[in-house]
Amino acid sequence: MAVVLLALLAGACSADDDAAGGDSGPTTTAGPPTILIAVGGPFSGEAKVLGDQIRAGAKLAAEQINAAGGITAGPFKGLPVELDESFDDGNVPDRAVEGMLRAVDDARYMAFVGSASSDASVGAARVASEAGLSYMVAFATSPEILAAARAQKSVFVVPPSAAASALAVTEELLQTSRRRPAIIHRAGTDGEGVARLVGQRLTERSVPPLAVESFGPADSDYTAQLGRIRDAGPDSLVMIGDARSEARILRQAAQIGLTVAAFDAAGVANREAFLTEAGDLANGVVGVALTDAQRGTPAARALQQAYTAATGEPGLPAPAAFAYEGVQAVAAGFADGAAGRLELSDHLQRISLPDTGVGPLRFSPDGSRIGGRLVVFTIVNGTPVLRTGYEQTGPAAVREVALER
User: Fold this and answer.
1) What is the DSSP letter of 71?
2) Does residue 90 have a pLDDT over 60?
3) Is the pTM of this model over 0.90?
4) What is d(CA 227, CA 291) in angstroms, rounded to the nearest whole number?
């Protein structure tokens, strides 16, 4: 009877550890052990296209890792990567938190890759950080994500940060002769943080913004804000919104006689929705892209070709690119020696991938990317024309670099 009681107690303790999300080796519900990764994003709703791209990039990475023999080194050498793509957040913050709680509470999940919006990622980052689950944020870039991850450093933003994107565009503005900028930004996590950063950098360089205006996510009429900006007499306008709101800003600014150089600090000026809705008004806008579609390294060409072969799409969209890198980073962390999910984040801090196909990949201590490549462009005849490249060198720092061709 003593043996039976000990066995029952051991089983109960094991169940408690699993429910609490304790460290665990790879496992799945059936079959041989694997490195199980939760993949999340808007797999339904208005942003479904982003979720589909996240899934496609993660799937391509898993297929390549497994085709090459699985995890290349460490305690789990040879194990394949398995994806669970059932974490549909619909770009809704509460659903993103629910999904992360599900992953945290199930010790089978070794990491979480995904999410498309910053609002959905902030709460999920807080949950992942408290549990120590490595969360590779695939397409959200707000500084608030890492600010929310204070408990443990287990949250990693794979794309160049919103700060890096905004600073690259701000540097381009500062290199012009314009000295009277204004800012109009979307209210909320993304817009306010980016606007504050741009304003600080402009002020540091003795070019403080003449006016700063905001608009709500549901607003469609910005003429009052643009009128106040016009009355301040700016010579340039920094826009921080989504693709459609920035197109409306250009149209409404033209209607009230505000015709100044426009700079997109949100990374949306190369999106089809912006180019279509802005029309000829898009010409001359300076914007930034999170990836270099024309990058010419062997790894970049191979990744582009593999993605096109897998999906039929001619280009590699940014959500797919960063989800791909997120899965590759998890595999590299286990190859570096991580023996379980609670150890993984320490090893992710140590990895340095020289060229994923998207670019070099490593992380700063706060979880932001180091070495990420950004491309600044000008819209000419409805097409982005490259100006220069930037590299993220710190959480909120960039330097100009030559484009890799």
Assistant:
1) S
2) yes
3) no
4) 35
